[in-house]
Amino acid sequence: MILTTAMTQLFAVVLRRDKERVTETLLREGVMQFLSTSELDIEPRHNQSGAAPDASLAELSDMRKRIEGILHTVGTIPSAPQETDLQNRAPVNLAKEAERLDRIDGERESIRERQRSLQQEILKLEDLRRQVNLYGVDLGKLQAPARQSMLAMQTGRLPASNAKRFEESLKGLPALHMALAQQDGMVHYLLLSMKRDQEPIERILSSVGWTKVEMSQEVLSARKNLSGDLTAKLQALTEEQKKLQDRVTDLIRQEEPHLKDLWVRLRIQELCAKIQASFQSSSRTVIFAGWLASSMKERLSAKIAEACEGRCYLEWHDADSDETIASEVPVQFNNPKVLAPFQMLVSNFGIPQYGTIDPTPFVMPIYLIMFGLMFADAGQGLVLTLIGALSAYLTRNNQAKRGTYHLSWLIAWCGLSAIVFGVLFGSYFGKALFEPLWFDFHGIVAGHPETGSVIRDVYDILSITIYFGITVIVLGLLFNWFNLIRTRRWVELVFDKGGILGGWIYGGGVYIASYMVDHGYKEFPSGNTVFLLVGLPALLLLIKEPYHHFAHGKAHAEKAGNPIFLVLTFLMEWIVELLEIFSGYLSNTLSFMRVAGLGIAHVCLMISFFTLAGMTSGVFSVLILIIGNILVIGLEGLSAAIQALRLNYYEFFTKFFHGTGKLYTPISLDSEP
Predict the structure, then answer these.
(1) Structural domains of the chain, count
(2) Last residue of a domain, one of 276, 309, 344
């Protein structure tokens, strides 16, 4: 669990006729991360090339994504292929299926075109209705009563044969036309439009033979409720819009079973094509290589041999072997599911190099202790736990929200940490409802500490975080030494600022500081002690630059001709490195004081809200306390989480973690698209 999973490399040769069966076996097992054909160090021959799949990988991927887009419009997310789907797989006729998708898209597009047209008409009529409701209209005088109105209104007639063309022409403009009467082959209209559109309106009226006429008062009185007419028309258009949307949904629902089955078949074919893209093929054989966990070696060997009926050559190499094809070994985390939220934090920073320590098991207690010290309240922690658990429950089966799922559990874990430290410090929604099991944090900050307690003042709280920070930094140094030994970087192990000499200086500095504190800042350790603890390792660091110079003389050839300049360079680099070590470790250690600072700020905020609540009474007092707790949970919780993450990343990880590894991503049936 502390180290990443041991990996091994497979180099395989199978007959070309067994290619499909081997591909299915590799996909079914889903444990192999393939090396690309460019990484296979094989001498090319005239009849050797990459094993081309039957269909282009890009074509398969594009069609799959196209189907996803169609299904997503009705809220359907296709499920990953299962082993039964692989057993019954059949190649997809891309041309035929493309025609079917084109037909679906064509029908959808025609409906959407009508929807767009309806939407434009709805927007224009809503604009008219706003003007009518704002200014009103006087049908008796056929004019808008207010000069600032943007409405124009007129009545007229046109030949009945031009009525349809007239109504079609007005669809592109925000205008309301009402047929008032029909007589002698002429249709009488009331036309309501916007003044800004007067010019195109006049052109349309001229083209359809419009003649202005005065309508009788009786005819106009029957159509006085223009706002009601507009509302009725808008409602009819909205209902038609909904029916069109239902048509689109029904169209996709009818095709959904076929589209889901097609998506699965395309996904399987796409995954097989990805695997075969890593094959090197000749006229009779296929060669491939890749990485997998060492624990899967025996099983995969048996499965490949079974698929080929023994007609195969398999060659295995451990990750540290000189015979491996690619130098970079992928990294597979080896943590239980309970650590998944904290593994997410590690992955966000980077992937550890293969063979080095995976800090995930240590990030969990370190992060939670930091959070608990900064956010120590059992009541507020319970709220965080419930929120996190509820969010995790709601997203547990949604693969698209795995990040949210892990984040939810992280919130729940932080809430549990707050509960534990809240009990230790006796804080429950900012009140000391029970005796603290450790010390009274609130009492110390408020200025009335508990008598007889080991922790008596704010300085003692700061010292807790300082000692905690020293522990974290020392742990990071030990991890760094372990990683350097594992990777056989002996010079860095000794001379690096995170190596033995750097750790020696840090340990000496910690002892000297502790000695001075214990003696009331009035005594200093003896000179011999200081020399052994700090001076000797500092002098030994002087060897580093000369060693690098003589070990890599060609790289420093330009300096060799001037010994004085060379010595001055060594001294300058030595001084700079010492300054970096002393200032770096000092700032790293003092940085942990922010843990105490955030904890004190959390207490001060709660004291402030209780003080405000005490100035009022009744409902207002309760309301202030509720709002105060909500603000503290939201703001202080977020701040504590960020600061705990920052301290892990910049004060812990930087001591040993390089984050340059390559994540192990095998091709399997449940691989993310």
Answers:
(1) 4
(2) 276
